[in-house]
Every structure is written in structure tokens, then in C-alpha cells.
Amino acid sequence: MYRTSDSEQDSGGGTAVLRPRGAVPPRAAEFGRRVEEKVARLELVVDLGARIGSREWWRGLATCTALCASAIAFWPHLPLLTPAAPAAMSTAEWQEVRAIGVAPLALGADTGRRLAATAAVRPLLDTPERPTIDLTATLGRGDGFVRVLERSGVAAGEAEAVAAMVAQAVPLAEIAPGTRLDVTLGQRADRGQARPLEALAFRARIDLKLGVTRVDGRLRLVRTPIAIDATPLRIRGRVGSGLYMAARAAGAPAKAVEAYLRALGSRLSIGRDVHPNDRFDIIVERTRAATGEVQLGKLLYAGLDQARGRVQLLEWTIDGRRQWYAASGVGERRGLMRQPVIGRISSGFGWRRHPVLGFSRLHKGMDFAAPYGSPIVAAADGVVRFAGWHGGHGKYVSIQHGGGLGTGYGHMSRIVVPAGANVAQGQLIGYVGSTGLSTGPHLHYEVYRGGAAINPATVSFVTTSQLAGAELARFRSVLAGLMAVGEAGPVRTAAGDLRPGA
């Protein structure tokens, strides 16, 4: 091969090619173009939001991860610098900053609402008190009138004096819980003393308002009567689906309806004898004040109009005991005899082998096993016919009840009622013992009807009483007065509206 100055010449049987000096051979030029095209197509910054999953995307993700790892690896570790805590501000400094600072009102700032103190402001040695203080106190259930005044700021001695003055007008126990007391306290001469009471006002009853005022340095009680109307409220209506719900829907108080059902229950069965078309008739106490307050009281009359007749009951008191009497003046009370002692039944009524005598005979009562000395009470109202030793019964008490019924109580350790005494149901008559033919402490309880022993477990009796003479006339007069309620004026029906009385 030969080379000239500016060209190359190949020999050896081939064709000589002459190229300019500095020219690139064809193959090298093609290789260079390919490298340049690949470099041009290489993207160092790849959009990771496009062509997800392609080769370029994975290369860009690897590049991003490598750069982040390099930054974290070469992150400088500098020590944490703790700033010094500012000194706490005094109260005066805080008030000044609060007054002149600009901050949102929602964060509790007072921007523009107050000014900081200037040199012209001088602190007071003593803050002046309000000349009077008006407050309200409420008498709670089980609370005391004096304690309420003392909690309101009244001195103990003055509270006692006020309570004594109020008790002259109305007993303190009759002031209803929830009564509001309006109290006015005056100015005191010394901060170490309680404020004096200037005025007190409250509603003692629906017909009376009481007040205590200070006149010429002394407290005086002021009574303010309130006019009231004591006309009873009569409520009538149809029983419908339920007697209780119908009466409550008509406006009868819950306690009055409960008393009404108990009164009817002494004469008939509510579930069996009361029908949807029957009409109830209820009269309750009602007091209306001139100031607008209304107070409902107890049940006065219980009536039920049925297709087969009319039930009219009026509560009446005889010998200190209240019960419901019919319009004819006949009173009636139904009920089971009360268990005379707390214990278990150890032996029932009937034939058995006597534990002491050893042979069979009729056990005319029921034995209750109870600890020695347990109290024994009368099973029903009656008169003590016998009280003393009674053969095998030991210490024994016999009580005669109405309707030919009688009860006996044997084997007592002690008797506490004499013969001829009147006893009420549940009254103590003696204590459990083991006197007479007995093998241990228990009560032998007997029931007699017409002098013959019957099973005590089957006894259900009715006691009745009849009004007569002047008492019956007074009873009928009161009943006639109640029946006139609603006849000339409005009466409330079960639907809750008002209509003229029937």
C-alpha cells in the first residue's frame, strides 16, 4: 500500500481510492451517527406520569430513587438547637399586652375593647361593693327553709328569725318543694359580715303570698292573700279501649285515676265488669287562683254509668278511717286476711298425726314456723274476745271480725293486747313462742266462720258498714253538691274538649 501527500492509494491488485486528508471512513461515520442518535433519544428527565410500565418509565424511576437515596445519604447531621424560654409576664404586663395586642376575637382577644393603664391610673385600696344584690333561691325536696336562706348569704341568726316569722303564717313543712324565693340582700358595713336581708318574697300557698321587708331597720312580715276558686273539676267520658288511658286523655291526674280504679275495684272487677260503652265520671279537687295558677288535688267522687246500673262512690271518714261509700250510705271493703307472722307454713289444715299426743286428729288451723319472739299481728280488723291461757293452745288470742268471721292465735310467748280491745289489721298482738302442746316455736293460726273452723288459706271476706241518722244526711248532702258540679257549667270530656254538663 502506498500513501501520497493528501491521499491514500491502495494496491495489491485492487482499485486505488484517494480520500481527502481528515475525512472519516464510511463505516466509522455510520457508527458515529448511530451513537449520536441514541444519545439524542436518551431522556435523563422522564415524566413518570406518562408511559407507565415502559422501559423509559422504569429507567426514570430508578434515576429518581437513586437521586433521593443520594440526598438522604449525604444529609448533614446537625444538633437540635433549643431556644431559650421567654420569662413569664406579670399580671400587669399581660393585661397591657392583651389590651394593645391585635389578635382575633375568636381566640379570646380584647382588641379595641379596653385600653392599657396609664400613669394617671391609681389602684384602689378597696373595691366598692354593690349596694344591693338580687338573687333567686329554690327550696329543694328534703331541704330546710333556714338552710336555703343561709346558702343565699343571709346570716344564721337572721335566717332563724325570718323562718320564725314565716311559720306564724304557714307551717314551714307545708311550703312545697320547688318554691322560688326572691331574695334581696343589702349593703354591709364590714366585708367580714354577712349582708343584711332587705326583702324576701315567695308563694307560700296557691292562695297566699308572703313577703319580708326591712322597715326602719326591722324586718316585718307582709301577707298578700290571693283570691281563689275551689270549684271541683268533673271529668266524664267513654271507657273505650281502656279506662285508665281514657281518663288520662280527658285530663284527670294520674294519682286521681289510680285512686278511682282502686275505688271501683272494691265493688267490681275492672277487667271483667267494665265495658267499652260504659262512661266514667270522676270529680277531683281543683283550686284556681286569680293569678292564673291551677292546682288539682285528690279524688272526691268515683262514678261509672253502665247499662245494668250506676256505680256512685264517695270517700267518707268514720271513726278516723276513710273508705268509699255508695250513694245509699253503705261502705264496703274487700280483701284477703293478712298473714299474721313472717315465716314458712310448716303444717296445713286437715287430718294429721299429732306430734305430741301421738294419734290422728283434725288440725283446725295452719302452723307458721318462725323464730322465737317474732311479732304476731292481727289478720284483719276486729275485737279481741279472749286473751290468755287456753289449754293445749298455750297463750292464745281470739279476735272476732265482721260477717261472723273469727281468728285464733296460739302457742304465743307473750300477749300484748287485752280482751275487749279493738285492733286494726296489721296491729301487734303478741310474739311467737312454744307454750302449750308444742314441739318448737311456731304460730298456730285458726280461722272460724259461724263458730266452725275453716281452712285459713281459702278465706276471702268482705267487711261492710252503714251510715245512719245525721251522718247519713250529711253524706247525702255532700254527694248532692258534687253531683251539681258540671250540671250548670262546662265539664271536660274524654276527648279533652269542653261541653255543657249533661
Automatic annotation (TrEMBL):
<feature type="domain" description="M23ase beta-sheet core">
    <location>
        <begin position="362"/>
        <end position="456"/>
    </location>
</feature>
<dbReference type="InterPro" id="IPR016047">
    <property type="entry name" value="M23ase_b-sheet_dom"/>
</dbReference>
<dbReference type="GO" id="GO:0016787">
    <property type="term" value="F:hydrolase activity"/>
</dbReference>
<keyword id="KW-0479">Metal-binding</keyword>
<dbReference type="InterPro" id="IPR050570">
    <property type="entry name" value="Cell_wall_metabolism_enzyme"/>
</dbReference>
<dbReference type="Pfam" id="PF01551">
    <property type="entry name" value="Peptidase_M23"/>
</dbReference>
<feature type="region of interest" description="Disordered">
    <location>
        <begin position="1"/>
        <end position="21"/>
    </location>
</feature>
<keyword id="KW-0645">Protease</keyword>
<protein>
    <submittedName>
        <fullName>M23 family metallopeptidase</fullName>
        <ecNumber>3.4.24.-</ecNumber>
    </submittedName>
</protein>
<dbReference type="InterPro" id="IPR011055">
    <property type="entry name" value="Dup_hybrid_motif"/>
</dbReference>
<keyword id="KW-0862">Zinc</keyword>
<keyword id="KW-0482">Metalloprotease</keyword>
<keyword id="KW-0378">Hydrolase</keyword>
